[in-house]
Amino acid sequence: MTGLRVGRKSLENRHQSSLKSLLKLIRGLPDRPSPDQIHDLRVAVRRLQVMRRLLPKTTKEFPDSKRFDLSLKSMMKATSQLRDVDTLMETLAAHRRAPPETMTSLQNQRSDLAAGAKEAAARLAQIPLPRVDWVQIRGKKVSKRLRKRIRQQGRIATELLGEVVTDESKAAELHSLRREIKKLRYLMELADKSSPDVAVLADWQESLGAIHDLDVAVAYLQGKGPELAKTVRALLRIRHARYLGFVRKCVMTSGSLKNRRVTPTTPGLSPP
């Protein structure tokens, strides 16, 4: 943890590169963006948001910065439901667990949501780029802020981890854990020196994502009538197996689980 540092020039280059990538994505977005395009757009926005939170408060208080950061939040909100529909359709198609009429209904819903995402992207593309006075930013302060945020994210993730490893039913907490692990991973990736623990976080994120995809599918199908009960049970069996797989990974990479406590080796994660 103490060795994690990010230089001013390194952060500036990453920030400028992320801005450029984001602009390329939103300006090239078609009227009906594909699931992959929406996924890539959301990842680009998240990474930029994590990066911008390391900037000094005075920089973030500039009017153009505040306006831009609000636009990033709006972009995430505009694509959230669309991403859920994409995830749902991909999960049902992969497991062949939905009747054709269900997929047709979802496709129609997706078409409307995709148009809304395109409009949000067009609005974001018109926002002036935020001004950052990089000369006034000090690497030591940014590094200190990075380590502080990693510790904060680590505490949140550890508390959630302690809740979910002994209770499979906590779908909301599992989803929250996935989000916090993702933030922690993106923060650690900003460090000038790469950490092998990033690979652990990425693996956890992928496992949690697979569980969440099934939770979304189950929640959707459970409200569609008793004729889909067999499908729901099949998805729950798959979900159970993936949950056990995630817990095994936690045991292998995080130490022992005792009294709902975890002793992780990943920097930033400490027992709750």
Structure description:
The structure is a single chain. The protein is mostly helical. It has a single domain, classed as CHAD domain (Alpha solenoid), CATH 1.40.20. It has 9 helices and 2 strands. The protein has a two-stranded antiparallel sheet with strand order 1-2. Strand 1 (257-258) and strand 2 form a beta hairpin. The protein is flat and about 65 Å long. The two termini are 17 Å apart. The model is unreliable at 255-268 (pLDDT under 50).
Keywords:
272 residues; mainly alpha; CHAD domain; two-stranded antiparallel sheet; 9 helices; 2 strands; flat
Neighbour order of strands in the largest sheet: 1-2
Order of helices and strands: HHHHHHHHHEE
| Protein structure class | mainly alpha
CATH class: Mainly Alpha
Low-confidence stretches: 255-268
Short description:
The chain is mainly alpha-helical.
Topology at a glance:
Layout: H1 8-27, H2 35-52, H3 57-60, H4 63-95, H5 100-126, H6 139-164, H7 171-189, H8 197-222, H9 229-254, E1 257-258, E2 261-262
Antiparallel strand pairs: 1-2
Helix pairs in contact: 1-2, 2-4, 4-5, 4-8, 6-7, 7-8, 8-9
